[in-house]
Amino acid sequence: MAGSRTGTSIDLNPESLRNLKSPLFFNAVGCDPNIGVTQETIERFRGFVETVLQHPMCMLTVRNDGSSKYLTEYLGQEVADQIEVVPDPGFFVDPGRAELPRSLEDKRFWVLNLAKDRPERRFPGTRGKLDYKGFITEISGFIEEICLHYPDLQIVLVPHIFSDLDPIRDVMAELPDPIRRWRISVAPLLHGMGAEKTIFALYKEAELAMGPRFHANVCPIGLGTPTLGLVTTQKLTDLYEELGIPERAIDAQTPGFGQQLLQAAEKTLRCQNDIKADYRTLRANLKTRSDEVYRNLESLVDS
Question: Considering the chain, what percentage of its residues have pLDDT values greater than 70?
Answer without folding.
Answer: 98
